[in-house]
Amino acid sequence: MNLIRLLKYKSGSFFVMIALLGIVNSLVYGSIMVFINNVIAGVGLPFIVAPQSWVYAGLLVVSFLLNKTFQTYIARLTNSIVFEYESGVIDKLRVSTFESFEKLGAQRVYTAIQDTRLLAQVPSNFVNAVNSIVIILCGLSYMFWLSWKAGAMVLFFMGLLLAFYLLRNNSIEKQLNEVRDLQNDYHRYLRDFLNGFREIKMSLNRNNSIYERYIKRTLLGSKELNDRTSVRYLVNELTGNYSWYVVIGLILFVMPQVLNIPSARITAFVFTILYIMGPLATLISSVPFFTRLKIAVERIDGLEKEIDTYPQYDLEEQPVELSRSFTGLEFKNAAYEYKDAAGNKLFAAGPFNISIKKGEVIFITGGNGSGKSTFINLLTGIYMPTQGSLLYNGQALVMNSYPHYSDRLSAIFTGVYLFNENYDGFDLDENNPVLQKYLTMMELEDVVRFDHQKKSIDNKLSMGQRKRLALIYALMEKRDVMVLDEWAAEQDPHFRAYFYEQIIPVLKQMNKTVIAVTHDDKYYGQADRILHFDFGKVARDVKLQHAKQPELVK
Questions:
Q1: pTM of the model as a whole
Q2: What letter does residue 303 receive in the DSSP assignment?
Q3: Which residues cross the membrane (predicted)?
Q4: How many domains, the chain?
Q5: SS3 of 167, please?
Q6: Is residue 189 part of a domain?
């Protein structure tokens, strides 16, 4: 979708406003040009009775008000487009499946949203371009009125100049597309550099490699392409500017001899050329902006279309009402297949035939690549089975059920992420007795800092402490099912033992269903059941017995 179609799509009156601007500006700029030329030549205009200075001032006021009105209209229109695009993309992403987000990649979303910032520069550039075109057309019309032969010569020259521009601009556009691809790569490398900064400090080879072979090489490639495009644009601009001096030379030295044009008209021609040189330079200098804008709009449009091809949830529709009260989960022949971009099968997990009852504590065990993470993604509704089904309280889930199903579970994933804002609206007042009880349970009562203005808790904690805080938030969600993916991995020995021997039994006494991925075989006895995974399947399903349960932590 190009810019004109995009603006037209967002506003039905766009072409009306363009036509109005063009017509009125043609009259205003044409009148200014004829008026100035006649004043210089000492020729009056018989239909004007007011003082010439008043007429000139009036024309300028009309031009100013018209341009202000149109620029305001375009500014509001483009700001609306930026708002609708950014909010629209994020809205579509939030109702997309997790698999869709993985296919898109975060860097593409970041880059496309950055592209919308170019739209903010549209009002001034667009109006200046329209005004420049109007002034150039008025100048050409005036030259044709003075001498159609001379006007035809100038028009022919402008046609050659335009063809030169279009030819060179096609190759420039290809290079700019390459620059955008390099920027996508750069954002990916930069995210690795920033998010893995601690790991980078631990290896000189990794430190040098990510900078020299990836970040620096990408930036250098982008710089070299930008250098080439900048030089090409500069050559275009200089060629355009100096070509008009060639035209002035033709008018001064060739036209009087070839076309026998009077000196008064030669003066008018030179004045007109000088008058339109400024707008033409403006038009030429705006070409890089509109080329980049064209690429940005195409990529924005491409991202939107790609998102639209992915499955999306309808959050307003819930085909089957899912009770908040949990009774059980069941996997019926459920499996998930990973495929590459060509659709070739890479890895499959399942089929799973597993029942989970209310109040069970289940430990998930197995080596790397055994299928544990895929099972957790299926369990939490992050992935939907590619075959078979998942039943919640005996009800089979369909696509639009999954957001509501996931909303019935609390999950803490391996790479736990704590948000900077209190998006869940928890009561995080330090005087909240429930919160204080949980902080005491997690041994964080003397560690956390409260942000009273944001009504949140500062999450600048160690990884183990962040996981404890995440478990507090999970408890405050008051959901019956808790999924913990290697939650104890970053805890110190004391708290790891405390978690398995005290907190897990407490959660069981609270009638929570706990599914925890763990490698801590020392504490397997705290589970009711152990599911051991191997090669994408459940290799063993072991049920255990318990002699006692500890009291609730006070």
A1: 0.72
A2: H
A3: 12-36, 48-66, 126-144, 150-167, 242-260, 266-290
A4: 2
A5: helix
A6: no
